Amino acid sequence: xxxxxxxxxxxxxxxxxxxxxxxxxxxxxxxxxxxxxxxxxxxxxxxxxxxxxxxxxxxxxxxxxxxxxxxxxxxxxxxxxxxxxxxxxxxxxxxxxxxxxxxxxxxxxxxxxxxxxxxxxxxxxxxxxxxxxxxxxxxxxxxxxxxxxxxxxxxxxxxxxxxxxxxxxxxxxxxxxxxxxxxxxxxxxxxxxxxxxxxxxxxxxxxxxxxxxxxxxxxxxxxxxxxxxxxxxxxxxxxxxxxxxxxxxxxxxxxxxxxxxxxxxxxxxxxxxxxxxxxxxxxxxxxxxxxxxxxxxxxxxxxxxxxxxxxxxxxxxxxxxxxxxxxxxxxxxxxxxxxxxxxxxxxxxxxxxxxxxxxxxxxxxxxxxxxxxxxxxxxxxxxxxxxxxxxxxxxxx
Length: 397
Ligand SMILES: [Zn+2]
Ligand SMILES: [Zn+2]
Description:
Blueprint: H1 11-31, H2 40-52, E1 56-61, E2 65-70, E3 77-84, H3 111-127, E4 134-141, H4 150-155, E5 166-177, E6 181-182, E7 186-189, E8 191-200, E9 204-205, H5 215-225, H6 227-233, E10 240-249, E11 255-256, E12 259-268, H7 271-291, E13 295-304, E14 307-309, H8 311-325, E15 330-331, H9 343-348, E16 351-359, H10 379-396
Parallel strand pairs: 3-4, 3-5, 5-16, 6-15
Antiparallel strand pairs: 1-2, 2-4, 6-16, 7-14, 8-12, 8-13, 9-11, 10-12
Helix pairs in contact: 1-3, 1-10, 3-10, 5-7, 8-10
The chain binds zinc ion (ZN) (2 copies).
One zinc ion binds at residues 109, 145, 369-370.
């Protein structure tokens, strides 16, 4: 392990001293999960803790969002650090003593841990604010799992007053062993858009297809043919996913269906490729439907952008992680086609998103995110908090 750069206080010890409290906070959030835009209790606790630290707190942003501003020193730069607070609409199957007490809601993605880690980081940095050459805006957002809390918070001006210059965020991950961090520069997570396609044919008797335009047969061709965007049109080195997730049409076995409705999602890792997707879809759907005498409507809704790690911000995090866990425990994993609404902030300012390993086979923390048995190794929170603290000091120290 390279010799750590000198830090103004003993970061490892500072985290160790808060570990118990951090775990208790996480377990309290875990017992009391709240889904998107309903994070009232969670946001209340967050705001109270930030106020107790003496930070300048704004509540009720985009409903349940909270920010806490730590103003420090002769200020030029402001760094934003974000945690998401929302749980998923899922019934927990774990039997731990901190299992969810709200039926139909569960922290199955680790956002309970994110909130506890960021509160701990806020606590420690407030205690050492004389070491910071700049402000920190701690941002706690609702509804990351959908419909998305980052964009409405952005629209309410969270990147202003003071103007934010850079952003950091971490996400626990049970695909990666505890004690490891994954980060790399460039695109890390895909854009996430929604599509709705309506195919209009001409209904009629199931025995007399010649009098009709069968929208189900047309829809089948459409589902098939739009995949050629991925396989035949876009550069194979620029990943794209087109998924039709729902399809509905028809009322009876002996009636040829008039209208079919489909919903789906489009994911891209390249912003330019993404911008071309509506045109490509429209051209293909228009060609297929007109060749089969049907009509169509396509609604393309741009949602979360591509999440791109800035080179310099990533270098701060990589260095911080090296000092925390050693270079051999840093993974430059490939980008993934999942998405994150943190991308809205990182479209505006340079930032870094890193994954904190939270898998532990021995302790049984092996289940994937969004699974009713999801849980993670809480030791990951100490690693995450330490990497975050070191990254902050590199940026603002
Ligand atoms: Zn999730
Ligand atoms: Zn998540």
